[in-house]
TrEMBL record:
Domain SAM-dependent MTase RsmB/NOP-type: 212-542
Composition bias, Polar residues: 630-639
Methyltransferase as UniProt keyword: yes
Stretches with biased composition (Basic residues): 8-21, 573-584
Protein name per the record: NOP2/Sun RNA methyltransferase family member 7
TM annotation in the entry: none
Family: Belongs to the class I-like SAM-binding methyltransferase superfamily. RsmB/NOP family.
Biased composition annotated in UniProt, kind: Basic and acidic residues: 646-660
Keyword terms: Methyltransferase, RNA-binding, S-adenosyl-L-methionine, Transferase
UniProt gene name: NSUN7
Region (Disordered): 1-40, 566-602, 614-667
Biological processes annotated in GO: methylation
PROSITE patterns in alphabetical order: SAM_MT_RSMB_NOP
Length: 762
């Protein structure tokens, strides 16, 4: 049986259960039940090897018994009236007696916790021995009887050794005297209960999970973090070596006066549990240079220190002790001091604590030398991102109240971390009541949901000492889903480019570590003989990753959600319509060009006819004068062009001249044909083609060109006298012409299309 018998608070190894053969020997000796010893002497224990033994501690001071009885009264299992064997009264929630010594307080809690474990067995002994029925003990004193009875059987029903200096409490002394007078019957009842249940040891009646925790708690090593406000890691290691300690590489090598560094936290040292008394002699503990605290409490501060940016504060929420607050404050102050930055502020929500608890926390923080801690008296749920005090908070450490089901040394942990003592009764039976677990999970969800609402917070560290997934992974995953849903519904522009996601664990697992288990995003430390268990997760607020998508992929994704109303198909239809319109425009342009060619051909034909009339002497003078005027006007317009100052070379100039010549001739012919009454009208069936204005091409500088046509001389002849003039295509009028000197065109050459041939008109 593991119990706290020494002032140091260490447990003794419990005796292990023997084989079934030993149980059969007990059954064969039922007639050896001890008789009642009214003289109060030592009882002849028939099977002393089956009794659990302590370390020679024969009882405790009266104050410890009284405090343990109040703790048991507030936390004992209250059965229904039909199944109630012993009545402890109706009073619960009694105030605890003041005990200044922390070791005495720890011992009282250990005694009360062990009594809760064996409440069923102790009640059977009191009923079977007729102690409860024969003694006129008040119901409100039965808690004291149960506590003292457990200690009485643990010291093998030996009388308590009293000290004269201790405080005397008469109620405690009276119960002690009654137990001594009834010790033989009580011992006989215990023996019958063990035979009835076939117990080699009273520990065998406990649930397997409780027995395993008892065994682990007896050999857990000491963990201590270095207070950088008072000392440094190197200085603490030098003092340990000077005190006779030697450093080893791993926890598995701890033996004797040794110590090692923790594999996860760089500022935590690990020592064997039996060296606590020798460690106190080094003054490292009294000078607050090395702080003894469970490892699970050091993981959160180390994670916060690694996540905090150069400029930012920390907000701590939940079930926190002054040691955890001081550890966080010292780590972040040391980190930013090394970077040349000022000390960040560590805010602590203490809205759910009494004034005495706030004063205690402030006292511990001051003793550790931390000056960057500020207490917030409001409740965490009443705070929001608009609070002026929290504008620089970038990391939140959330350690909510949990079931501490992954902790082996429950009493020591709850007392050191100011935990919930109401869990002692459930933990003494190895499981948490479903109603209590649901209440804890509801509060945890409420806290983490509120922590994720702070828009300027970059990371939330969530840490528990529970082994239940309902309090760990499920809470974190549900909070992320809820935050994502709320963000999509609200659509806040400030959060549009940011998302909350789990970050990889900030702690790495060394090769030699076998007990820790780590997933991709969660850090899970399983309970073992080397440490208690814990769970830690980090939720970061990070920018959304930029995903490069092609335009058609964006349109397809938008159409799939029904956002753009099938804009992709509309664009394809628009492309087809645009392509069709382009084809129609090209056809219309070709038709226009064909019409222009036809017009030029007709104009050439008309010019031939005019030339023939000129040859015959029938050209009207006004028409010739008008043509000359139009030709002169076209030349002037060409000369007065704003692009007349050209810098092109001769080749480009020659090409411009050719182009200009063609355009000028065509312009003149068009103007001439528009004024002539001899031109035939366009056929009535020809549709009018709309003019399509082409894209404006690159403009070139044009130069004026003067056209000089050669003179044509014809011989005098008299046309034949016919009533009708007929035109003979075979008639060659060129033979009438006398040779004329050819005049070359200056800087120009006319194509065949530009040369006008004159034919006689008959």
């Amino acid at each position: 049986m593991v119990r706290n018998k020494n002032i140091g608070g260490h447990h003794s190894r419990s005796s292990t259960c023997k084989t079934k053969k030993a149980g059969s020997q007990i059954a064969a000796s039922k007639d050896l039940t001890p008789l009642d010893d009214t003289a109060g002497g030592d009882i002849p224990a028939p099977y002393p090897e089956l009794q659990t033994t302590g370390k020679g501690q024969l009882g405790f001071p009266d104050t410890i018994y009284l405090l343990a009885s109040v703790i048991f009264q507030n936390n004992h299992l209250e059965k229904p009236a039909a199944h109630r064997l012993v009545d402890y009264g109706k009073e619960r929630g009694l105030p605890l007696p003041e005990v200044e010594d922390e070791e005495m307080q720890r011992t009282a809690y250990e005694l009360a916790f062990n009594t809760l474990k064996y409440q069923e067995l102790l009640e059977d002994i009191m009923i079977d021995s007729c102690f409860y029925l024969s003694q006129s003990t008040a119901d409100d004193q039965m808690s004291l009887v149960a506590v003292m009875l457990y200690d009485f059987q643990d010291r093998k029903f030996l009388p308590r050794k009293r000290q004269g200096e201790e405080e005397i409490i008469q109620t405690v002394r009276d119960v002690d005297d009654i137990l001594l007078r009834f010790k033989t019957k009580l011992a006989a009842s215990l023996a019958r209960c063990r035979i009835k249940h076939d117990l080699l040891s009273i520990e065998c009646i406990l649930p397997e999970s409780v027995k395993m925790k008892q065994e682990r708690s007896s050999c857990l090593p000491l963990y201590g973090w270095v207070n950088t406000m008072k000392s440094s890691l190197d200085e603490v290691q030098r003092e340990l070596r000077s005190a006779g300690f030697s450093e080893v590489k791993s926890i598995g090598q701890l033996d004797g006066q040794t110590f090692c560094l923790d594999p996860h936290c760089g500022d935590v040292l690990v020592l064997p549990a039996q060296l606590k008394a020798q460690l106190c002699s080094t003054k490292l503990l009294s000078d607050h240079k090395l702080i003894i605290q469970d490892k699970s409490c050091s993981l959160g501060p180390n994670a916060v220190s690694s996540l905090l940016p150069e400029e930012g504060d920390v907000l701590m929420v939940g079930c926190l002790s002054g040691l955890t607050v001081s550890h966080t404050a010292s780590l972040v102050a040391k980190k930013l001091e090394a970077n040349g930055k000022g000390q960040p502020t560590v805010y602590v929500c203490v809205g759910d604590r009494t004034n005495a608890q706030r004063e205690e926390l402030q006292r511990v923080v001051t003793a550790m030398g931390c000056k960057n801690v500020k207490l917030i008296p409001e409740d965490f749920q009443s705070l929001d991102g608009g609070d002026k005090r929290l504008q620089r908070v970038r990391v939140i450490l959330l350690t909510p109240k949990c079931s501490v089901s992954a902790v082996s040394n429950l009493v020591e942990y709850i007392l050191q971390e100011k935990g919930d003592t109401d869990l002692l009764q459930d933990l003494s039976q190895g499981s948490i009541a479903q109603s209590k677990l649901e209440a804890l999970v509801a509060q945890q969800r409420k806290d983490i949901d509120h922590a994720l609402k702070f828009p300027k917070v970059l990371a939330v560290v969530y840490s528990t000492c529970s082994s239940y997934p309902e309090e760990n992974q499920e809470v974190v995953c549900r909070a992320l889903e809820r935050a994502k849903t709320c963000s999509e519904q609200e659509g806040e522009p400030k959060r549009a480019n940011f998302s909350l996601r789990l970050s990889p664990s900030p702690f790495s697992i060394p090769d030699h570590a076998e007990s820790p288990a780590e997933t991709e995003h969660f850090f899970v430390l399983e309970p073992s003989e080397d440490s208690n268990g814990c769970f830690l997760a980090v939720i970061n607020r990070e920018p959304e990753p930029v995903v490069e998508e092609a335009p058609h992929e964006v349109i397809l994704r938008a159409n799939a959600r029904g956002i753009l109303d099938r804009i992709g198909s509309n664009q394809q239809r628009a492309r087809k319509e645009k392509r069709s319109h382009t084809n129609k425009t090209a056809k219309m342009t070709n038709a226009h060009n064909s019409q222009s060619s036809l017009s030029v051909s007709m104009q050439s034909r008309n010019q031939e006819m005019l030339g023939s009339m000129t040859l015959c002497g029938h050209q009207p003078q006004p028409l010739q004068g008008k043509a000359k005027a139009l030709q002169s006007q076209a030349s002037k317009n060409t000369v007065s062009s704003p692009f007349s100052s050209s810098k092109h070379d001769s080749n480009s100039s020659s090409k411009s001249e050719k182009s200009t010549t063609k355009k000028s001739i065509q312009s003149v012919l068009n103007l001439t044909s528009s004024t002539s009454s001899l031109l035939p009208a366009p056929p009535p069936g020809t549709p009018l083609v709309p003019v399509v204005r082409p894209r404006r091409a690159h403009q070139e500088v044009l130069k004026p060109v003067v056209l000089v046509l050669p003179r044509v001389h014809f011989p005098d002849f008299s046309p034949p006298q016919h009533s009708q003039i007929e035109f003979s295509p075979s008639f060659d009028y060129n033979q009438w012409r006398s040779p004329a000197p050819s005049v070359p065109l200056a800087r120009s050459s006319l194509t065949k299309d530009a040369i006008v041939e004159s034919r006689p008109l008959f």
